[in-house]
Amino acid sequence: MTQRTLALASDHGGIELKTLLAADLSGLGWRGLDLGTDGPASVDYPDFALKLARALKAGEADLGLLICGSGIGISIAANRHAHIRAALVHDGYGARMCRLHNDANVLVLGGRTIGPEVARDCLRVFLETPFEGGRHARRVAMLSEYGEK
Ligand code: RB5
């Protein structure tokens, strides 16, 4: 089986958590594609949401992880891109439901809002949970359809 790829990006408010989670990926059977930021300097989260959206569109990664301080700005930015379904999650329940029901292709976390172990749990659950399909596929299709209206 080919190894799947997770694209990761954050602003300065998420870099610590991004670094911590990137170290978990090989143990979870995933490859990481780190799109920055690379240091503590202040940067603009919409730029990193855009980089990740482009990587997913180009097929360079299967799923994405975005982190900013609260998770709010970068999730708003990511969801401006029509092919992105980004879910801001705070616990394992949210991580599971966003895959099962929403087919979320981007997990969003707040680097300043959740602790490292909860974040690790969110990532593991997100990567291991499949989309349930069925009636949820119809609703997810409606998201794209309504986005075009
Ligand atoms: C940066 O200070 C902070 O505003 C950003 O990381 C994020 O929380 C925005 O939503």
UniProtKB/TrEMBL annotation:
The catalytic activity of this protein is classed by the Enzyme Commission as 5.3.1.-
* UniProt keywords, alphabetically: Isomerase
Q: Name one Pfam family in it.
A: LacAB_rpiB
Q: Which family does it belong to?
A: Belongs to the LacAB/RpiB family.
Source species of the chain: Magnetospirillum molischianum DSM 120
Q: What is this protein called?
A: Putative sugar phosphate isomerase ywlF
What residues make up the catalytic site? C68, H101
Q: Which domain of life is it from?
A: Bacteria
